Automatic annotation (TrEMBL):
The keyword Hydrolase applies. Gene3D superfamilies: Carbon-nitrogen hydrolase. PROSITE patterns: CN_HYDROLASE. The lineage of its organism: Bacteria, Pseudomonadati, Pseudomonadota, Alphaproteobacteria, Rhodobacterales. GO terms for molecular function: hydrolase activity, acting on carbon-nitrogen (but not peptide) bonds, in linear amides. InterPro entries: Aliph_Amidase/BUP (IPR050345), C-N_Hydrolase (IPR003010), C-N_Hydrolase_sf (IPR036526). CDD domains: nitrilase (cd07197). It comes from the Bacteria. This is Carbon-nitrogen hydrolase family protein. Transmembrane segments: none annotated.
Length: 257
């Protein structure tokens, strides 16, 4: 399966010349599946606080428009994320887009609160989390950005037979930390790990580091995006992941603490 991953710009709008360039590049890649970055459309709202309902609604609206645009580009399966209302704040919800249908497959659980990333002021964790989903015949798991720093969930995904873990990020400039987290996720799960991120600077001054990446089962580095190569593609073979999941360290039994 040809799986694409990206670095997409801060403030991306699902129309206009920039979106046209992105969709042309995607068409040329002939993907079976696309993994986008976290909350890929519109400005990054968590670079400020307090919570503002109008700003939150604008984020919801542009993602509804953006996901509709993604449905129209002809890729058989897409994994992305969107904000959805949950009482007085938002959920950050990962979705699969397949056959014109959008379905929720995960909600972000680990939510930071610090300069540039005041996410806990805007988002709360949902209940649907860390359950593998079957998308285009591929068993996959999703982590939304900081979720990937809690490696026990990658191991759990692997023990549930996931061939691919998708890490959707809106991450800053400390790219080495994310590469380490991605490689460890692949090592302990035996799965392929693919991650997309945004790049650029938000209106509030938050800088995003780009650097989408892919690791093979067992942690083998496969590819890393850069400004000259904002879309890359790997081939995901579920049989390779299944074999790795019977190898060290995946086979080692878990112990209670």
């Amino acid at each position: 399966m040809r799986v694409g991953f990206v670095e997409w710009p801060e403030g991306l709008e699902p129309y206009g010349p920039q979106w046209g360039e992105i969709t042309n590049r995607l068409a040329d890649a002939r993907l079976d599946m696309l993994i986008t970055n976290e909350l890929p459309f519109g400005p990054w709202i968590a670079d400020r606080r307090p919570f503002d309902r109008e700003v939150a609604q604008a984020c919801v609206d542009i993602h509804a428009e953006g996901l509709d645009a993604l449905r129209g580009i002809g890729i058989p399966a897409i994994v992305s994320s969107r904000p959805v209302w949950a009482k007085d704040r938002l959920l950050n919800q990962a979705v699969a887009i397949e056959g014109g249908r959008i379905r929720a497959i995960h909600t972000k659980q680990y939510i930071p609160e610090e300069p540039g990333f005041y996410e806990a002021s805007w988002f709360e964790p949902g209940e649907d989390c860390f359950k593998p989903a079957d998308v285009a015949g591929l068993r996959l798991g999703v982590m939304l950005c900081t979720d990937a720093m809690f490696n026990e969930h990658a191991r759990s995904y692997g023990r549930q037979g996931t061939a691919l873990i998708a890490i959707l990020r809106a991450a800053g400039m400390s790219t080495e930390n994310w590469l380490t987290a991605g490689r460890m996720a692949a090592l302990v799960s035996g799965s392929y790990v693919v991650s997309s991120n945004r790049y650029g600077c938000s209106g509030g001054g938050t800088e995003f580091g780009g650097t989408g990446f892919a690791f093979g089962p067992g942690g083998t580095p496969l590819a890393v995006t850069d400004p000259a190569n904002p879309l890359l593609v790997i081939d995901v073979d579920p049989d390779v992941a299944a074999r790795q999941q019977s190898e060290y360290p995946c086979y080692v039994p878990e112990r209670g603490i």
